[in-house]
């Protein structure tokens, strides 16, 4: 007599289901996305969702991790690959204009838009900390360029970082409100006019 196999293999593609969950959270935000919305989009039942991902909050945390490594990775690449803060931010804003208006996925930035109308304190704190971490990275890179002589000595790293973050976040919202790529590219170019020009060491 054949031994009955314990458990049952998953009948869905976990990666594909996670991508569908990402689209739902991105489109509607954390608070407005229900478990029923998620299971419908992912093509699985609630028991399968809980078994594979945990609860809604745990699923969202995994979504954020995947988003940061895929759709949102252009920020990390810009700062890793560009030699100065000015060039990194210019590239970041230029690429944001393209990413935020790409019709292949919901408009804007998931980390920014998912926070809209969110009343779950743990999620609000997590998203705020992620945004503040980005600002801190901007400020650190700008401060390093001031110290290296690439930016004028009197440059206020904190203000410039917050300004750049405000432009980035505003571009996300404007994309969701219907702004096109060319319009946001123009915003990115205008924002860089507020930056001091780079200097060579010793100038």
TrEMBL record:
Gene transcribed to yield this protein: comR_3
Source organism superkingdom = Bacteria
The record, for PROSITE patterns, names: HTH_TETR_1, HTH_TETR_2
What organism is this sequence from? Streptomyces hundungensis
The opening ranks of the lineage are: Bacteria, Bacillati, Actinomycetota, Actinomycetes, Kitasatosporales
Residues within the DNA-binding region(s): 34-53
Q: Which residues form the HTH tetR-type domain?
A: 11-71
Q: Does the keyword DNA-binding apply?
A: yes
User: What are the protein's UniProt keywords?
Assistant: DNA-binding, Transcription, Transcription regulation
The protein here is known as HTH-type transcriptional repressor ComR
Q: Enumerate the GO terms in the molecular function aspect.
A: DNA binding
